[in-house]
Every structure is written in C-alpha cells, then in structure tokens.
Hints:
The chain has 303 residues and is α+β, with helices and mostly antiparallel strands. Among the domains are: 11-108, Alpha-Beta Complex (Hect, E3 ligase catalytic domain fold); 120-168, no CATH class. It is 49% helix and 14% strand. The chain has helices spanning 25-36, 41-50, 59-67, 92-108, 147-150, 164-179, 182-218, 224-237, 246-260, 263-266, 293-302, and strands at residues 11-14, 17-20, 75-77, 80-82, 120-121, 130-135, 140-145, 161-163, 270-275, 281-286. A three-stranded mixed beta sheet has the order 5-9-10. The protein has a three-stranded antiparallel beta sheet with strand order 6-7-8. Strands 1-2 form a two-stranded antiparallel sheet. Strand 1 and strand 2 (17-20) form a beta hairpin. Helix 1 crosses helix 2 (41-50), helix 1 packs across helix 4 and helix 7 runs antiparallel to helix 8. The radius of gyration is 33 Å and the shape is elongated.
Amino acid sequence: KMITTHAPFGYQYHNGTFTIDTVKAPTIKAVFSYYLQGYGYKKIAQYLEADEKFINRKPYQVRNIIMNPNYCGRVINQYGQYDNMCPSIVSTSIYEQAQAIRSQKQLKRTSSANQLKQKIKCPYCGSTLTNITIRKKHRTLRYYVCPQNMNASRFVCEFKGINAQSLEASVLATCQDFFQNQQLYSKINHTIQQRLKKQKDIEAKSTLTQEQLIEKLAQCKIDAETFREQTQSLHQQSKPISSIHTHQIRKALQNVIQQRFTLNMLYPYIDEIHITKSKTLTGIYFKNEPLNIVNQTAQSSIA
C-alpha cells in the first residue's frame, strides 16, 4: 500500500490512494514527450512556458518529473520495485526510455575543468556561481554562470556568466603578485626573528637551570639518577635553531611561487572571490582572513 499522503505533481490524494489530476497530467506527458525528442530540461521548461495548455515548470522540476517512477505507476523504495501502485500518466515503456537517455547523458558527461568551483559570488544577486562547459568541434569553452539562470527557464538574474580561463588567470596572477610582495618577506622575517629571540631566551634559562642542577647535585639535594633525568629533560625542551637571513626567505619563497604556485594549491585556502558587474576581479578572500588580496596588491603597487 501507499503509505504517504503527499501526492506528486500531477496527482491528488484521496481516500488512501492517488488519483490523476486531469489539469496537470498533460504537462507530465508533454515533459516526457519533449525529453524523448532530445530536448534538455531548460528547453522543455521554455516550451511549457510558451504554451498555455501546460503548467510552467522550472528546469529542476522538469528533471524531477522525468526521474519520478510514480508517473508510470511504479514505486521504488528500500523494499524493492512495485508496479501498478498508482494510476499511470505515462507508460512504463516511455518512463524506461527516458531513464535510458538520462543514463547515456551521464556517461558522456565529464567533470568540469573549472578550478575555482564554489568560490565565486554573483555580482548581481550574491549567489555562488556554478560551472558550465560548452564543447565545440575544435575547442572547449568554460564559464562560471549564475545558478539562478540555470534553475529558471529564462534569465532571472542580470549576470549571465564570465569566461573561466580569463578569471582563473587573473586570480592566479593577483595571488602571485601579492605573495611576491616585499612586505610579505619582511613579515615572515619578523616572525622568524621573534622565534629566534624566544629560542635564545629559552636557551639562556636552560643554561641557568643546568647550573642550578649541578649545584643541587653537589649539595646532595638530588641523586645522580635524578640529575641525569632532569638534564635530559632540559635538552629535549631546548632544541636550538639556526639563524636565517631575509634573502634566504625571499629565495625560498620565489622558488615555491615560480615553480609550484597553482590554483589547485591555493584552492583549499580560498574562501570567496568577488567580481564586478563588468566582470573585473575585485576581491580574493582567504579562509579565516579578512584581508582582500586584490586591494592589498593594488595598494602596494600605488605605494
């Protein structure tokens, strides 16, 4: 038995059973018919919108209709597959043909080569841009597009998309400029020098403590075994580090930036990327850092 009172689009719930909604059923049939003719979700949504006989469906709703086995009277759940559980709107043959087409499309689909997935914000509505790849005979075009337009039959957001290769090149160049900036070397050198000073302080205290241990041993306040254990503990706590010069830092970082600095390396650390309505890069924000890399680079070049 059907154990739900929630009827899918195209059905009504009545006295423990689903009955066909005669107003919505023609839309279901049209969706399957268009899909079997080779049209995609968005194109089908546009055809429904243009015909007064049908009820408007968004592309994701068209997809849900095609995937729902209820429309051929079938129920698939954790207990198995059951036919004739509700009145069918389309035949089993039509439903299975649609699933075969979906499977073929999924096999042909390859993952997007876009390197900044889920990082870029739409300059109009603030949505996170999604990926789209257009494959032509001799080349492939990659874009970041607003998902609001992907989920609607027509453009509902003014931003259509931005060329992925151009934006990725701009983001990488901006990050390279920032990390090659002289100020960064100064900051790193300052941090290292602080660490060296701290280490020297620890070593100085360790020397004093070692003298105190020798004095205690001489006065028989501790035995030889305790002296050995505490001396060993002091040596473990105090691990000397060698000094390092600014030019060594610069050289090491330049080697990393020039040879291994890629978007794949940066990706885990990038939080958000902002662009203007005219598709100009205006913001690169790293996780847990309020600093805008783009602004810092611009300020540095002006200075």
